């Protein structure tokens, strides 16, 4: 190359690298930083550079873009209820309801027991429960737990996952192979 900055004793590898660098890129650099415009093949690298905590290569393309787009907001509020809700919504699990702190109830008859909560007195102030608006499979429950470990404060403990809709009725139409749960994951 006549305009080469390499010394006369440059190796063939160095010359090949210089030639590659001299070629114009097929896309603009700014495009690589925009989740909606970044090529799908480069989304994992964009996710890594934006510190996306939870990533699944099996997600649909739109879910990947949503997770990358929500990453700065999740990190801005990391460790709060809003970050947990944001990461679950971006991953396609809808608007989750989160209840936290099951301690401190007085046993004076003002609260009726309906079986929805256990009465364990330990670190109940750090426990939280997540109620999802739709049924999930056992594999999705594992993914939700992984997402929650990434977004929730380290001091908090996930007590249970629930969903508010019924996945199936007991009519022998499906086999019980462990894919679905009984309503609490």
From TrEMBL:
<dbReference type="InterPro" id="IPR006521">
    <property type="entry name" value="Tail_protein_I"/>
</dbReference>
<protein>
    <submittedName>
        <fullName>Phage tail fiber protein</fullName>
    </submittedName>
</protein>
<dbReference type="Pfam" id="PF09684">
    <property type="entry name" value="Tail_P2_I"/>
</dbReference>
């Amino acid at each position: 190359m006549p305009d080469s900055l390499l010394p006369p004793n440059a190796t063939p590898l160095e010359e090949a690298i210089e030639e590659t660098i001299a070629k114009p890129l097929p896309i603009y650099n700014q495009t690589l930083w925009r989740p909606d415009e970044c090529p799908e093949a480069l989304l994992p690298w964009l996710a890594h550079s934006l510190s996306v905590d939870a990533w699944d290569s099996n997600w649909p393309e739109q879910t990947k873009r949503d997770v990358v787009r929500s990453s700065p907001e999740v990190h801005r509020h990391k460790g709060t209820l809003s970050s947990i809700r944001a990461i679950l919504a971006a991953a396609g699990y809808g608007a989750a309801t989160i209840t936290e702190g099951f301690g401190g109830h007085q046993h004076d008859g003002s609260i009726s027991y309906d079986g929805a909560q256990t009465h364990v007195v330990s670190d109940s102030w750090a426990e939280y429960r997540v109620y999802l608006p739709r049924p999930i499979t056992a594999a999705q429950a594992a993914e939700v737990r992984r997402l929650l470990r990434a977004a929730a404060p380290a001091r908090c403990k996930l007590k249970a996952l629930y969903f508010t809709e019924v996945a199936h009725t007991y009519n022998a139409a499906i086999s019980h192979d462990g894919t679905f749960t009984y309503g609490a994951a």
